[in-house]
Amino acid sequence: MAHENYLQERVFRRTPANGLPGHIDDQDDYVCPETFRGLDPNALFVAADLGLPLLRIEELESMETVAGAARGELKPMVEAYLSSGGRSGEPELRDFFTRWSRRAQIRPSFAAFHADLEDLFETGQGWEDRLRDALGLIHFDPGQRGNAIDVLVFCYDVREVPRLRRLEVNQRPLAVPTVLDSRFSVAFCPSPRDTAYGHVVDLSGNVSEPRREVVHPTMPLRPGNLWRMGSIRKTVDGGLLPVARQLHLMALRSLSGRDDYAMTTDTKE
After folding, report:
1. Residues 184, 265: contact at Cβ < 8 Å?
2. Is the dihedral of CA 116, 117, 118, 120 positive or negative?
3. 267 falls in which pLDDT band (50, 70, 90)?
4. For residue 268, is pLDDT > 70?
5. Are 238 and 229 in contact (CB under 8 A)?
6. How far is it, in rounded angstroms, from Cα 266 to Cα 269?
7. For the chain, where are the alpha helices, taking DSSP H only?
8. Which of 4, 80, 93, 127 makes an SS bond possible with 223, Cβ 3.0 to 4.6 Å?
């Protein structure tokens, strides 16, 4: 309960009436999550290449709920837009994203690096399940929901991330994720202090080097950011999680040169 209170009081911020902002005053507690108010302007990815592509996954049904849309409204718009290569349904989709933007919270949004995930899409069918596992999204579990989970994948350049007014024009607030930036997840492991970015736990346990992740303020979306739509169908194998976490922590120790990092994190009494 204390963690949830912290999120509501200091991290999840109310969006202005005109929608998610493209510029955020980090001195304004009303609109800026605490995550970004103390951001070091010299941190590595604050000065990332503005053309660097990021990926973010959103649950389709959750986006409808936030936008106040009818259930089933978004999917046909996305299908029309993607199947036509963006030539059909653009105005309707833009209107939906505007409605979503006006109701979404300004909060830390988790994003991965497109370059780290390219291989997941090369073998075709089942990329949705592989992406879910690779990003540690254990709550996207059809086994718990009782049905497949429709998801949207957004791809956008760093330059589209909202700016903090105190940063230089070519800088963006890309921060290292911590346990304080969102609700608890049994699949989340914070990276060692002073690392340049976070690392996700691969639920499959089959990755040798953890993929990178960052958080940034919730950004306004446009149809051009929409990259893919699919359905997660594979049940999460919860029995693999302890092994996946141990392999993840071993990899972090190797990457950071800290052999003692989180040695007692997953031990059983």
Report:
1. no
2. positive
3. low
4. no
5. no
6. 10
7. 2-6, 34-37, 60-67, 74-83, 90-103, 114-117, 127-134, 142-145, 241-256
8. 93
